[in-house]
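Input (RNA-binding protein KhpA):
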Amino acid sequence: MIELIKTIVKPLVDHPDDVTVSMDEHAKKIIYKLSVNQQDMGKVIGKQGRVAKAIRTVVYTAASKSDKKVYLEISD
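Output:
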């Protein structure tokens, strides 16, 4: 799942080397934390959050077979 997130985000940003994804797993949920360069935050979030929503939709759909709830957090 981490590679999927990186594959989606890296072409969108100007600083692809700064894209990092970490995973925090709990009993009933998995939280993926996406971190990008401060200058690329607008590109990842998009107008009115449309790009971020699309990324989350793809990640949630890919993780739908999992028994745990999946979340994607975007941070700078």
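Residues 2-75 form a domain with the GMP Synthetase; Chain A, domain 3 fold (CATH 3.30.300.20).
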